[in-house]
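Field reference: sequence -> structure
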Amino acid sequence: MADNDAAATPAIEFHHLTGRVWVTPFHPDPAWIQPSVALVADERGSVLVDAGQSPAHAAEIQAALRAAGLPEPRWLVYTHHHWDHVWGACAWPGVEIVGHVSGADLLRAEAARPWSTRYLREQVRADPRLGPSFRARALAVDSWDDFTVRPPTRTFTDELELPTGVVVRHVGGHHAPDSTVVVDPASGVLLLGDSWYPPPLHLRPPDDGPDLALVRRLLTDDIGWYVSSHSPTMTLDEARAAVAK
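Structure field:
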């Protein structure tokens, strides 16, 4: 990749949000389609929320973990099956991958596709609406030689509580059928993933917008912080004000 491309990618760091929750920022350039990633750090076994959008992104996340002195994850939770949240999973060997049962079926189908730069080009020629997403994928993956899409190794249907007290809850919504939120009650943090966003661009009707009704259902006095994958983190008061607008 050219030097100016590398310079466009900011260094990844984990920032302490509150309690035992640490978060990396999302990429400020939406064309990169690089979401934030969170870690719920615990001596019993940390929980990583989303894998990174590529093996290279995952390697940067791993370096940021070491730099911050944070423990390696024991669990990796997918907020949903979209590529920018799961394509880094092949760089996380040994973790238990948790995801919704409907996402597991979708990811098994994704894993069977012959991912390569040539394949991406062919798909964009067939459907130009895929252009922004597939161009970002081509930029994100340095080599396809050892690349694999990993479905979850542990699935759930409605809700699952991990041994650290982290709660994984299916919410669905317009963005993806398997959209999942992750709650750390001990820290008062809810990780929204992309759950309230409209569908991906190539599937989005012209008048579709954020799913504010879903957000309203998730706002509660027990949670002080709301973290989305491609948007600034909000306090409860900020989230309520944003929904009210």
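Note: The chain has eight helices and 13 strands.
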